[in-house]
Amino acid sequence: MNALTQSIQVQTSTEPCIFVAGHRGMVGSAIVRRLRALGHRNIVTAGRDELDLLDAAAVREFFSAHKVDQVYLAAARVGGIHANDTLPAEFIYQNLMIEANVIHAAHEHGVERLLFLGSSCIYPKLAPQPMREDALLGGALEPTNEPYAVAKIAGIKLCESYNRQYGRDYRSVMPTNLYGPGDNFHPQNSHVIPALMRRIHEAKQADAPEVVIWGSGTPRREFLHVDDMAAACVHVMSLERETYWSQVLPMRSHVNVGCGEDCTIRALAEAIARVTGFRGALRFDTSKPDGAPRKLLDVSLLERLGWKASIDLEEGLRHTYAWYLEHRETVRAQ
């Protein structure tokens, strides 16, 4: 009996079989934790060594082998600005293939409910702040991550199209900047929180007098702990069909997921310095680019659907730093 078969519990008539695609990633693993905390045991997972989501035939075979009732599509090729800017072909191709293969196979095998996870980068570069769901396709995208954003927009439209043509209940959520246990701490390819946390921690270990941070520190960004994101995903999936679509359709066909608050990059760096215990200086290199001045999601639709974030940023940073310290030997090798 292989590991995949072992992970499948005996189905009952009352408990749905839930497939979490991308369960080893930061978001997917958090969704699995949340589902298990709520008592779900009939969870199907498959690592990359067991199931290649880029292989359409393998994905169809997987769905044929398992009677899946719900899908959380958290699998994706992800990375920071540097990775998106230098590997655009990988980002658009792999994300398009993953979402197309999984969504189509789910439809072919009668899966009625699916949740697709996108990204707030789907919105136009100059979208009004805070960004509402109906800002989608209202202007040009940020050039550095346009291929990734286009793939995520395609995922929304895939779900929308199967709903419209076949009456499926395929939902989409667009998270803000996420962080937490399981994040990518690669020195070049990570997002802002793990990148700063690693650099500031290593500066503390080296007793360095300062850490240099790109930009002025004035841009504002919103950050959501991944456990809050997972809770929001499960909440959205659990809503009755009529309740969900009566709220969502007038705005578009997806839901923003964030905390509704932002902070400057300077304030973020100062919070990480406090959490790590770094006592040196933070010097901002204003010769480096800042990016967009502000990126904040409008989360009023999510709140109308009955969910609000609960993890404070500094509390979440402490939790993340504790995880990093426990796993730093592994992430240093990445």
From TrEMBL:
Residues 18-239 form the NAD-dependent epimerase/dehydratase domain. The keyword NADP applies. The gene is fcl. GO terms for molecular function: GDP-L-fucose synthase activity; isomerase activity; NADP+ binding. Its EC number is 1.1.1.271. One of its GO terms (biological process) is 'de novo' GDP-L-fucose biosynthetic process. CDD domains: GDP_FS_SDR_e. NADP(+) binds at residues 22-28, 117-120, 152, 175-178, 191. Pathway: Nucleotide-sugar biosynthesis; GDP-L-fucose biosynthesis via de novo pathway; GDP-L-fucose from GDP-alpha-D-mannose: step 2/2. Belongs to the NAD(P)-dependent epimerase/dehydratase family. Fucose synthase subfamily. The record marks S119, C121 as: Important for catalytic activity. Keywords: Isomerase, Multifunctional enzyme, NADP, Oxidoreductase. Substrate binds at R199, W214, R221, D290. This is GDP-L-fucose synthase. It catalyses: GDP-beta-L-fucose + NADP(+) = GDP-4-dehydro-alpha-D-rhamnose + NADPH + H(+). Catalyzes the two-step NADP-dependent conversion of GDP-4-dehydro-6-deoxy-D-mannose to GDP-fucose, involving an epimerase and a reductase reaction. The active site is at Y148 (proton donor/acceptor).
